[in-house]
Design goal:
Blueprint: E1 4-9, H1 13-28, E2 32-33, E3 42-47, H2 52-64, H3 66-71, E4 76-81, H4 82-87, H5 89-94, E5 100-102, H6 110-118, E6 124-126, H7 136-142, E7 160-164, E8 166-167, H8 178-181, E9 186-187, H9 190-202, E10 207-211, E11 219-222, E12 225-228, H10 229-237, E13 244-248, H11 257-265, E14 272-274, H12 282-288, H13 294-307, E15 312-319, H14 326-339, E16 344-348, H15 356-360, H16 367-390, E17 396-404, H17 406-410, E18 418-424, E19 429-434, E20 442-450, E21 454-459, H18 462-466, E22 471-472
Parallel strand pairs: 1-2, 1-3, 3-4, 4-5, 5-6, 7-10, 10-13, 14-15, 15-16, 17-22, 19-21
Antiparallel strand pairs: 8-9, 11-12, 17-18, 17-20, 18-19, 20-21
Helix pairs in contact: 10-11, 14-16
The chain binds 5'-deoxyadenosine and iron/sulfur cluster (SF4).
Length: about 475
């Protein structure tokens, strides 16, 4: 009987993609996938280190596996991803029944290490070098991108896929662990990216989302030829079958005139721009070492408004960063009011060991102040997003249908009419009454109502579309 693997994934899109790759690899090595840790011979946790809370949740889930391991010592337990890279031996100390620790730059070693564990060779660990453990080249080589096989069965929907174009990060924002856990920034060769996109198109994938920590900083140098992000988008745009190209996450300084005009001139490119601002205060941005001022960000924002007036822009904010005063926090509120982001992801600062902020600045904003600032900023963000979404009532949007909405899933699985959801080109979520067969189709939906996160509408009949209702984003 084939070995059964269960994988639990937390964290960012990069982790979702890493899990897809690891599973594709394990299937090639004879494993089958199961949907509960109980029935699995091998349980893998793909982990995140960005905030302490994410790590504590993993350690607490691992704690629950202790008894299962005592009952069945043959069950293999593995920890992969950023927390594995950051904690290394500490994982074995905190959870002694873990057999395997693998960093995100060493995922290709998993099948071989599992075999060693099976043969009785004991615990295994594969991690990359830290940023001070050798020359640039040697460190970079120890962080390998892992993109061997695409497995449509492992994706939430077969017609959408993540596609990695870059690993690592060299920005070293003072609060962030990513440059340590995922290593130096490295662009993948354009030929590899293009050939993977072709494979995805052949598998029926219609929308790709390009992934990188600072995706728009992408560069690949080969001999005397350099491909930048705009050049890569132009090549991807040629691929038949791919109808939408999205990309996350962007770095404000690299949102150039050239990139924005490229997005404007290539109809398949989504004018959805996630460009984290992090704080509306220059002093805080300086402590964060983000490399730009609020003025620089606003210049970029106005460039987006001028070149891509239909774009939707979203942001990330950290509240309660070291030394953040009330006045500095209020500057973030004013920026949310000024920019009217489509959405903002708001995080309370969490001190991360090994980062510059942890070494240099005390984590001095009290927990309850962080929570209050989080709620206040979210309240402003949601109020403005709802106002802007309501302005779309009456318009027609083109939606790539993803599947039944969460509410719909609870309803009768045999029901003919279910609530379906999809996304517009600008990444707005749209809910409408439809049927399951519509998943994967592009449909025009007329917007009737809206909340801060969702547009609610009705599928347009062909007649209405043909008389020329304009399809907005
Ligand atoms: N504490 C809180 N939020 C953080 N982020 C990154 N590091 C931290 C941290 N130490 C947030 C940033 C980033 C998003 C992915 O997570 O806003 O853009
Ligand atoms: Fe972290 Fe800054 Fe790199 Fe984003 S750009 S991954 S926040 S170091």
């Amino acid at each position: 009987m084939s070995k059964r693997v269960y994988i639990h994934t937390v964290g960012c899109q990069m982790n979702v993609l890493d899990s897809e790759m690891v599973i594709a690899d394990l299937k090639r090595h004879g494993y089958s996938v199961v949907d509960s840790p109980k029935n699995a011979d091998c349980v893998l946790y793909n982990t995140c280190s960005i905030r302490e809370h994410a790590e504590e949740k993993v350690y607490s889930s691992l704690g629950k596996l202790r008894q299962a391991k005592e009952r069945n010592p043959q069950k293999t337990i593995g920890v992969m991803g950023c927390m594995a890279q950051k904690d290394q031996e500490i994982v074995f100390k905190r959870a002694p029944y873990v057999d395997l620790v693998v960093g995100p730059g060493q995922l290709h070693t998993i099948p071989n290490l599992l075999q060693k564990i099976e043969k009785g060779e004991g615990r295994q660990m594969a991690v990359s070098l830290s940023r001070t453990d050798g020359s640039q080249t040697v460190i970079a080589r120890s962080h390998e991108t892992f993109d061997p096989l695409r497995d449509p069965a492992m994706r939430p929907t077969p017609f959408q896929a993540y596609l990695r174009i870059q690993i690592g990060c060299d920005k070293f924002c003072t609060y962030c662990v990513v440059p340590n856990t995922r290593g130096p920034e490295q662009g993948r060769p354009p030929e590899q990216v293009i050939s993977e996109a072709r494979i995805l198109a052949e598998q029926g994938c219609r929308e790709i989302t390009l992934l990188g920590q600072t995706v728009n900083s992408y560069r690949f140098k080969q001999d005397d030829r350099t491909t930048d992000f705009s050049g890569l988008l132009e090549q991807l745009h040629e691929i038949d079958g791919i109808d939408r190209i999205k990309f996350v996450t962007n770095y404000p300084k690299d949102m150039t005139e050239r990139l924005l005009t490229t997005v404007r001139d290539l109809p398949k490119c989504s004018p959805y721009l996630h460009v984290p601002l992090q704080s509306g205060s220059d002093a805080v941005l300086k402590r964060m070492k983000r490399g730009y001022t609020v003025g620089d960000y606003m210049e970029m924002f106005e460039r987006i408004e001028r070149i891509l007036p239909e774009a939707s822009v979203s942001s990330d904010f950290i509240v309660g960063f070291c030394g953040e005063t009330e006045e500095e926090f209020q500057m973030s509120v004013r920026l949310v009011e000024r920019c009217r982001f489509k959405n903002s992801f708001i995080f309370q600062y969490s001190e991360r060991p090994g980062t510059t902020a942890a070494k240099r600045y005390p984590d001095d904003v009290p927990r309850e102040v962080k929570l209050r600032r989080n709620n206040e900023l979210l309240e402003v963000q949601d109020r403005l997003a709802k106002e802007d979404n309501l302005k779309m009532v009456g318009s027609v949007v083109e939606v790539l249908v993803e599947g039944p909405s969460k509410v719909g899933k609870k309803s009768d699985p045999n029901a003919h009419v279910v609530q379906m959801t999809g996304r517009t080109k600008c990444d707005r979520i749209v809910a409408f009454d439809g049927n399951r067969r519509q998943a994967g189709q592009f449909l025009n939906v007329k917007v009737d109502d809206a909340s801060c996160h969702t547009l609610i509408g009705r599928v347009q009949t062909v007649d209405v579309v043909s008389i020329g209702a304009p399809a907005l984003s």
